[in-house]
Amino acid sequence: MKARHISSLLFLLGLGLLLISIFQNLPYSNNLTGIGANINAQAPQQVGTANIVTSVILAYRGLDTLGELLILFTASIAAGMVLAYNPDELTDSVLGKQQQQPAGFILQTAADLLMPFLLITGMYIILHGHITPGGGFQGGAILAAAFFIPLLTLPGKRMDYQLGSLLEALAGISFISIGLIALFWKGQFLAPLGEPGVPGALLSAGSLPLLYLATGIKVGAELANLLARLRDA
Amino acid sequence: MIGPVLLIALPFLGAFLLPLVYQHYLRAAYWAAPMVVITNLIIALALWFGVSMVGPQSLLMGGFAAPLGITYYIDHLALLFIILLLAGSLSLWLGAWHRRLQEEMLTLLLIGSGTGMALSGDLFNIYVFFEIMAVASYGLTASRRHCGQSFAASLRFLIVGALGSSMLLLGIALIYALTGTLNLSHLAVLAPELLHGTTGLAAFAFMLIGLGVKAELFAVNTWVPEVYAHAPIRVIALLGGFVSKLAMLIIVRLLLLLYAGSDAYLILLGFGALGLLTAEFAALHATDLRRILAYSSMGQLGLIAIAFSIPGEAGLIAGVALAAHHAVAKPALFLLIENWGGHWQKLSGAVKVAPLASVIFLIMTLSLIGVPPLPGFWAKLLLFQAGLTAGGIFNWAIVLIVLTTLIETAYWLRINRQLFQSENNQPPVNIPPDRELWPAALLLVLLLLISLNIGTISDELTQMAYHANDTETYIKHTLPMWQTGE
């Protein structure tokens, strides 16, 4: 072991001890401000979501969710830029010819069969995000898998990046547009629009399901594009 | 209040729309991103005058009141840094035609997130925007084509940045565990009772390390020399000139709202002093011109950290003055050395081939050292006054600053002597093309304008510091339940 390794180990040990001593002093149980209890009590009437988490993600802290979407967007642009430098050279030299072969009949058929089911599951999770656990991020990841699994079985095939980028851009634009409509209509950016309705019904919570739909499509398109870029690079 | 929302929404909308515009209207696309920045600059200036007339304003994002929803607070301190960011990125667009789509998108995302971070009054919201800013800057530093060293530097930046982000998140989590809220004004009310203990100060130290990655503070600034040596020059000017100041702004907000009257200022003072000392010695020792600028930038940010750690308005005034001065002087220097990389001794006799660039270099470095009529002198004078008035440990900080100013003088004058030496008749440097000189010349004009109007500007600064230090107004504006006396 070099001196460098030992010093890193000592640093980690020190940091660990520091964190343990800090966490021992934390008051875990007491509810100091009552924010959580407030949200639990108000959310079903104020926002109309049966899933309280959704009310926090899209209504009380909608701007943070827009930020999360943008982090993913930024990361995918940056990764795309770095990976797109020399795709042809890399695929020829690094991957070699053998891995370009199709995956075989069984895997291909299974992947084709999986796709519609994954699409339906993903859309279901996105559209029911305000009444059941789940939502745009989780459903979007499943949508991305639906498009990526068939690609894995056909290594030679190139993904259509244009379509993905278009969907990504449109979903992002619609998320911000819904926020801006709320700004001009109700005076506040990203304020929930429409009636809260009956918590638990599919058509409830006003404009929140629309926001989740935009989130889901955006996450799906972005992840699929990113995975395909990583595969092609 | 539509203005502040548009300030954030427009760059993000622009980033989403840009790929579509590039596909169909290439000619318009080159103008799209600068147009967004110009629009934002106009809105920001309008907001500035609005705040001058009616005072600071607040708005609720999503329409929910403070502890539940996210509040934004618009005052002169935040607007100054936003205007610097917008005007700076606009000046960097000058003379850089035909940039790639991804670079433009990342720049817009950087601008939007920086604006959001400066205005936000919610810790987690600040974290989210800080993260966008961080990811966009990793991407931008890697945007130089076919350059392995630039990739390696950017990877190092990414690793240090990821460590910093997790530290910042840890600090925010500690604060949430201690108080049960993330809203800055709500925290300001609860802080004296709950946050001024050891655990609360530990949370501040964690957040300082996290934000310090971008603010180039000591110990987490190891990425700076590598990145500045290899990344595209305009990206460096943006990061070192403006993004680092935004991170510093968040540190100041935390210090003012959450930790006023506690010992937190000592932590910031320590990090700042160590950063100043190490960076200036490293700059004296460095030979590569880009690295000298990088170390000098780290030193200046250490100086700004020391200024902000002085309690009271005097420290705030000095810090803002130093930050604004550095945001004008350093990007100009970076732009000048775009073609002057390598050992500083290569510059001997550069005045013969590039007189304008040499003169701009001389004036900017003299201002950084703090030579009288230039703005750098007034900023340092403010810092001396503030430090000596505060007394105690700050007397030692002033001694340190005098010492490092001597070092600064040594290495800047050494380079300037090379520039203006006339022995060498065939200087081995490239002449920067005229259009590359535009932004630097513009910044020089700005610097000279500032030195002519130093009286008005110091009045404005005093006003701004008074409002920024006024925690009660902040709480009254953003916490409705406080108004009803609950």
From TrEMBL, chain A:
Residues 106-223 form the Na+/H+ antiporter MnhB subunit-related protein domain. One of its GO terms (cellular component) is plasma membrane. Pfam families: MnhB. The keyword NADP does not apply. The keyword Transmembrane applies. It is a multi-pass membrane protein. The chain crosses the membrane at residues 66-85, 105-127, 133-154, 166-185, 197-221. InterPro entries: CPA3_antiporter_subunitB, MnhB. It comes from the Bacteria. Its main location: membrane. Keywords: Cell membrane, Membrane, Transmembrane, Transmembrane helix. Belongs to the CPA3 antiporters (TC 2.A.63) subunit B family. PANTHER family: NA(+)/H(+) ANTIPORTER SUBUNIT B, NA(+)_H(+) ANTIPORTER SUBUNIT B. This is Putative monovalent cation/H+ antiporter subunit B.
